[in-house]
Write a structure and sequence with these properties.
The protein is of the alpha+beta class. The chain has a single domain, classed as Single Sheet (N-terminal domain of TfIIb), CATH 2.20.25.10. About 30% of the residues lie in helices and about 15% in strands. A three-stranded antiparallel sheet has the order 1-2-3, with helices on one face. The mean pLDDT is about 85.
């Protein structure tokens, strides 16, 4: 295998990993709605690397979002971003 084949393969693998990470967080976020009880996520903290923590006040589930655009999109039922600014 030539060096360019290895580089190309590495780029493809890296791209797949990044896509899967984004997809998993997007599924967890569920447009701002808890998947267990259908209540909206409520922002509670930001970690040292910028990830935002959300908690469901009804069932206590927690989700951490690290992608900057996942939790800023308009959510279901006309609600908007509920982070404290």
């Amino acid at each position: 295998m030539g060096i360019w084949n290895v580089v190309f393969f590495a780029i493809i693998v890296f791209s797949i990993i990044v896509f899967l990470a984004w997809f998993f967080e997007r599924m967890q976020w569920n447009d701002g709605i808890c998947g267990n009880c259908n209540n909206p996520w409520v922002y509670f903290d930001t970690d040292s690397q910028g990830g935002r923590g959300y908690k469901c006040k009804n069932c206590g589930n927690v989700v951490w979002i690290s992608w900057p655009f996942i939790d800023t999109m308009k959510v279901k039922n006309g609600q908007t971003d509920n982070r404290k600014e």
